[in-house]
Amino acid sequence: MDLQQITVSGLFGQYDYEVPFTNDASITIIVGANGVGKTTVLNIINALFGTGISRLRRHPFASVRARFSDGRYLDIHRVATSQGNGDVDVVFSLRDATRELHSFSLEDTPSILSALPRSQVNQIEDFIPEIDQIGPSRWFNTETGEQYDEFEIAEAYGEQIQEVFDVAVEDLPDWLTDLRKAVRVRLLRTERLAVESAVSVDQARYVSRRYRTRSADQIRRAVIRYSQDLAERISATTAEYATLSQSLDQSFPARLVASAATEPLSSTALQSRLTAVESRRSELLSVGILAPEQTQPMQFPTANELTTEQTAVLSVYVDDTERKLAVFDRLFQRITALQTILNEKYLNKAVGVKTTGLEVQLSRDVSLPLDLLSSGEQHELVLAYYMLFMLEDESLVLIDEPEISLHVSWQRQLLNDMTRMAESTRSYVVLATHSPQIVDDRLDLTVGPISLE
Q1: Alpha-helical segments (H) within 149-266
Q2: Can you say how many angstroms the Cα of residue 268 is from the centroid of all Cα atoms in its chain?
Q3: Range 380-406 burial, b when 16+ CB lie within 10 A, else e
Q4: What single string gives the DSSP state of each residue in 385-444?
Q5: C-alpha 178: how far from its chain's center?
Q6: β-pair partners for 203
Q7: What is the separation of C-alpha 343 from the centre of its chain, rounded to a whole number of angstroms?
């Protein structure tokens, strides 16, 4: 079941939007003047299928329809609550072509926090490392920059809260939870260089000591965080490589004996595969995934100079080495794609990779700290890294104003870059933009507001 289209009706009481997710280019571009709701449409999609479903109460729309490939559709309406006090409820109805299958109202779902005493509510930040309390009923995610009210924190961390405090309340119905899980939504906001943005002065007195002691760079620089993330990925992949290598090395004698009953590789096939293995080893070393001390190149006689016994041994060896190096395949593909996109654009700089993360070289002996890249260079790095490394397969990626700080020549390349990067995870991208350079001649990918006046 795939999400085919989102229709937002009565946004601000003035506009309708129809946003398809079916273009062959895997990209839809939302265009329009300032103030017509492009960002709000992204936020509505994110609230519906990401975190913060209660945020749908805040957005001024009349209704939303999500249409799926299996013929079902989910209708969402904002209505007055039964309390009659002016508050807004959100009602969900799952339907097929003939009838309503399920219905649900957010008013029917109490917050987990309503079952806890205030003393325990104030302890939430103590057992969720990335969460800091910034108000009586407000929390701040230091990794994403998001803020949560009590409904949103309960939705995002409900399982942990219930487990720690041994409390249970009615959750979203299974049918709605399953629908939401089936659509993997990620929203990249305009404040993407500051993934851990600062809080307001009014909120500062609530912020925990743990948050106040972080340095400004730790709080504000996405490029630093992503470099650290890459270092962790390299470390984890290298550990997987080491574990597999140890296992294969330990079983090598037994498998060598067992291989005596099978036909060894031909000299031509063996030579070809040995050459390919050494080529891949060199590539991994060149991009910085492997350190020289982690693997040693092997020198062999040409295949036609080998004895039958040597051919048998090397046939097992080349099988093992291919399996070991294959552990790095996906990481290698992502890193080379990242370097290609950035190095095509950065002037007089070269983006490289070490086991400690990303580095930018001005010359052989001079490097530039990532946080000293220009705003445009940082935005390009963040967009590319996010698309290549931070997404699950088959995600729906929402990007607000991707043109921020980018030179017009980079904006013209953005659609091609996005298409290449989206293909790596089979994802679909929705852009909200003012940039005619991004759209260029692809008006077929654009949608805009339909005025109700």
Answers
A1: 150-165, 174-182, 201-204, 209-212, 216-220, 222-258
A2: 43
A3: bbbbbbbbbbebeeebbbbbbbbbbeb
A4: HHHHHSPPTTEEEEEE-TTTT--HHHHHHHHHHHHHHHHHHT-EEEEEE--HHHHTT-GG
A5: 20
A6: none
A7: 22
Q: What is the pLDDT of residues 280-321, one digit of tens each?
A: 988 998 888 887 766 666 666 665 677 778 888 888 888 999
Cα separation, 188 vs 382, whole angstroms: 10
Model pLDDT for residues 400-446, shown as the tens digit of each residue = 999 999 999 999 999 999 999 999 899 999 999 999 999 999 999 99
Give dist(CA 411, CA 375) in Å, integer: 14
First to last CA, the chain: 35
Residues of the chain with CATH 3.40.50.300: 1-106+178-190+386-453
Can you tell me the distance from the alpha carbon of 216 to that of 336, in angstroms, rounded to the nearest whole number? 30
| The overall pTM is greater than 0.90 | no
Six-digit token pair at 86? 């002016």
Q: What is the CATH number of domain 1-106+178-190+386-453?
A: 3.40.50.300
Distance CA 236, CA 253 (A): 28
The predicted-structure confidence for 2-38, as pLDDT tens digits, reads as follows 899 999 999 999 999 999 999 888 999 999 999 999 9
With 0-12 CB in 10 A as exposed, 13-18 as middle and 19+ as buried, what is 131?
A: buried
